[in-house]
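In the design runs reported in the main text, the only information available to the sequence generator was the tokenized backbone. The following block is the verbatim input for one such run; it is reproduced so that readers can re-run the procedure and compare outputs position by position.
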């Protein structure tokens, strides 16, 4: 990981720095000429701060990126806030609306047709049992058979952390762990053991299973377990969306049913931290009045907390991701921006001197700079060509006897451009090579 930490004296300067770093990252990804996505974190979720992630879409990726084809909104599933889109919220059924004809919030389905799923988890201190109730099936556009839904555990974790509950999503049998904790405690009402029920906006709250069912097999005596109910996004009147997004789901920004999740590999991250750490650490700087005025404040020199940013590129992760995406059965295949050399010149035995001419012609003496390597090892021609394929040079120039003897022709090979193999004369070579490089 290559990290960069930035410090500015004002928010305005910090935003300039942030955008400069983000732009540099964009340039780097553009140079790789591989498909990438930039996902933004919902600002509300990050406490008003700003963050972007750079990903390669790849079935091998560990992250799930959800993108909207209508409004270009892209977000990491891990950073979904759990807040319902406005379109859900306006039709939200209330706790006492028992009418079977009430819409489910999407306005397309009878609420009574939804079966409710329950997902159970526990806090890290084992005292809080969390029951999440979510719609097991939803009908969305473009899906003839409604698929079974899953809880987005990250959203749930984020919602609960706003209430001081640190969820441990790794526990397999949360109920057993919670019961175990009850039996360790003295049976008093002072203990913090409790149940929190969290409801997705599309699920009826009145179907709440009784707490005493949970205590089966526990010698609870007159144990009085506290319970609370959560069906609003923290600090708002908006309902909760606890589901992992599926293709055809409604976009939280534009409301169109055009979301699409894809696996992706996260490679870089830009993050504006603001004063989150400098406040706590009292990392202050004296700011002169001119800068304060620029930031819209007036007054004398004062101490202000520094505005921080942190940014990182996973360099080794990028190398492995690129090799995964582009490698084929012959070997690696590098984009020219990160290849060890852009061009490999490989001569047949006896054509070493001629290969130097080829090398000189492509590296260029007119300011055209191509990074090339001449394989002058005394190995078999075919062996060297296979080795060049294995290493993954973007362009291989094979100087073989047959083509060279028919008018100084060189065979140009490029696996990434439809396995291109063509012979080009020495005179035409520099122009041809640079036109290929512009595509790699
Ligand atoms: Zn959208």
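Verbatim output:
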């Amino acid at each position: 990981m290559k990290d960069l930490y930035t410090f500015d004296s004002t928010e305005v300067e910090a935003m300039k720095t942030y955008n400069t770093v983000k732009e540099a990252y964009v340039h780097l990804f553009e140079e790789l000429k591989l498909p990438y996505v930039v996902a933004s974190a919902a600002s509300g979720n990050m406490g008003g701060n700003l963050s972007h992630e750079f990903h390669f879409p790849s079935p091998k990726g560990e992250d799930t990126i959800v993108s909207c084809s209508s409004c270009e909104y892209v977000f990491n599933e891990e950073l979904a806030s759990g807040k319902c889109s406005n379109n859900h919220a306006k039709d939200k059924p209330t706790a006492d609306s028992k009418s079977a004809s009430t819409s489910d919030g999407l306005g397309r389905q009878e609420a009574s047709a939804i079966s409710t799923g329950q997902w159970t988890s526990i806090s890290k201190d084992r005292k809080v049992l969390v029951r999440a109730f979510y719609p097991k099936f939803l009908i969305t556009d473009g899906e003839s058979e409604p698929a079974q839904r899953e809880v987005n555990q990250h959203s749930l974790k984020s919602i609960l952390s706003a209430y001081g509950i640190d969820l441990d999503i790794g526990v397999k049998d949360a109920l057993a762990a919670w019961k175990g904790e009850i039996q360790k405690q003295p049976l008093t009402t002072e203990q913090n053991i409790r149940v929190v029920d969290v409801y997705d906006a599309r699920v009826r709250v009145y179907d709440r299973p009784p707490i005493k069912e949970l205590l089966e097999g526990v010698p609870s005596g007159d144990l009085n377990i506290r319970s609370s109910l959560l069906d609003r996004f923290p600090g708002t009147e908006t309902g909760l969306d606890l589901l992992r997004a599926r293709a055809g789901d409604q976009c939280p920004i534009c409301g169109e049913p055009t979301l699409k999740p894809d696996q992706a590999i996260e490679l870089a991250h830009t993050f504006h931290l603001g004063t989150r750490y400098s406040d706590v650490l009292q990392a202050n700087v004296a700011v002169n009045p001119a800068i304060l005025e620029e930031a819209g404040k007036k007054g004398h020199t004062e101490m202000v907390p520094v505005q921080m940013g942190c940014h990182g590129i996973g360099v080794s992760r990028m190398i492995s991701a690129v090799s995964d995406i582009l490698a084929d059965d012959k070997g690696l295949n590098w984009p020219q921006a990160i290849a060890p050399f852009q061009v490999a010149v490989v001569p047949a035995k006896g054509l070493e001197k001629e290969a130097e001419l080829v090398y000189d012609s492509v590296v260029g003496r007119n300011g055209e700079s191509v990074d090339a390597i001449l394989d002058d090892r005394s190995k078999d021609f075919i062996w060297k060509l296979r080795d060049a394929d294995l290493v993954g040079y973007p362009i291989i120039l094979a100087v073989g006897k047959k083509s060279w003897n028919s008018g100084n022709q060189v065979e140009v090979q490029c696996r990434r451009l439809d396995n291109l193999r063509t012979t080009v004369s020495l005179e035409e070579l520099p122009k041809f090579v640079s036109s290929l490089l512009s595509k790699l």
